[in-house]
Design a protein that fits this description.
The chain is globular, with a radius of gyration of 22 Å. The termini are close together. It is built from 3 helices and 17 strands. It has a 16-stranded antiparallel barrel. Helix content is about 5%, strand content about 60%. The chain is mainly beta.
């Protein structure tokens, strides 16, 4: 990460001391190769592809004499918006506009393998709210960490137009405790999405709960996710479970693996499962190589995928 100190004259105009404010620029370039094979493929499908992605984030950070920390960040991926955030934090906690919502912050995703290429099994959260309004324009409050406990709540407005009543409310909490050589973190998150029109049936509720146990180089995550839809005429309630592990084999080399699955109580053809494993190697500071293998099933379709990437980050 390259940090550029703001000019003293500009800081004076803002009323902030030069020693407590800076702008940071970070990013990465990533080349990926994927080879997919599905039971429904026909003879003309090649199954393999290559891609290159470029990402950059510009962030500002300020600290006032009164103890406030505040700033912004904006990320672009291949020239497209990939996240924006404004935040103010202090002893009261943090107020955040955009960025990770409470659901994303406290959701437990057991799909830890890096670089896997398939459909996730468990479906409720996985760090992605149902509308970008929460991620880009929603407002959140997060408590400070108190003896290992922290919590947050978010609200996203779907819009002011016709059919834009699908507002989103999210909340979450976690508790972390060290027991002997192990650190245990338990988390819970919930999301409520209103119907897009008054009296509509396209609303939903979702929950995520799980725990991560870390002991030395080994980390294990277990989770259970649910999603309940107001309209069950096409798809019913969904539930997902999974377990993932991460183990540092040696300096710079990490093995990750997971197995996840989900069930729809009204339509078994959309049931999903996925098992994946990855090896990630830090070749040099800022240079990372990865290879992963995935075996997945979605309804009656099965498939495998082998992926690899090379990433340069700064």
């Amino acid at each position: 990460m390259r940090k550029i100190l703001l000019a003293s004259t500009a800081l004076v105009a803002l009323g902030v001391s030069a020693a407590s404010a800076d702008i940071s620029i970070s990013g990465n370039g990533k080349w990926s190769y994927t080879n997919n094979s599905k039971s429904t493929d026909n003879a003309s499908v090649s199954g393999d592809s290559m891609s290159t992605a470029m990402a950059i984030t510009v962030a500002s950070s300020f600290a006032s004499d009164s103890g406030l920390t505040y700033g912004t960040s904006h990320s672009l991926s291949n020239g497209n918006n990939d996240g924006k955030k404004i935040y103010v934090s202090g002893s009261f906690g943090e107020v955040r506009i955009g960025g990770d919502s409470a659901g994303a912050a406290f959701d437990v995703d057991p799909s830890v393998a890096d670089g896997e290429s398939a459909t996730h099994g468990a479906t409720a959260f996985h760090g992605a709210p149902t509308t970008a309004k929460v991620t880009d324009d929603g407002i959140s409050y997060f408590t400070p960490s108190i003896n290992g406990f922290s919590a947050g709540v978010s609200f996203g407005d779907a819009g002011a137009g016709h059919g834009e009543n699908g507002d989103v409310t999210e909340m979450g909490a976690s508790y972390s405790q060290t027991v002997g050589d192990a650190t245990i973190k338990v988390s819970y998150a919930a999301r409520d999405t209103s119907a897009s029109n008054p009296g509509g049936t396209d609303g939903s509720e979702a929950t995520s709960m799980g725990a991560t146990i870390t002991m030395g180089d080994l980390s294990v995550t277990v989770a259970a996710n649910t999603q309940t839809k107001d309209d069950t005429s096409s798809n019913g309630d969904e539930s997902g479970t999974g377990i993932g592990l991460s183990y540092v084999l040696s300096e710079g080399l990490t093995l990750k693996a997971h197995t996840v699955s989900s069930d729809d109580d009204a339509d078994s053809t959309v049931d999903n499962s996925e098992t994946a494993a990855s090896l990630t190697y830090v070749v040099a500071p800022g240079l990372t190589a990865n290879v992963a293998y995935t075996d997945s099933e979605s309804g009656t379709t099965t498939g495998t995928a082998t992926t690899a990437y090379l990433k340069v980050a700064f």
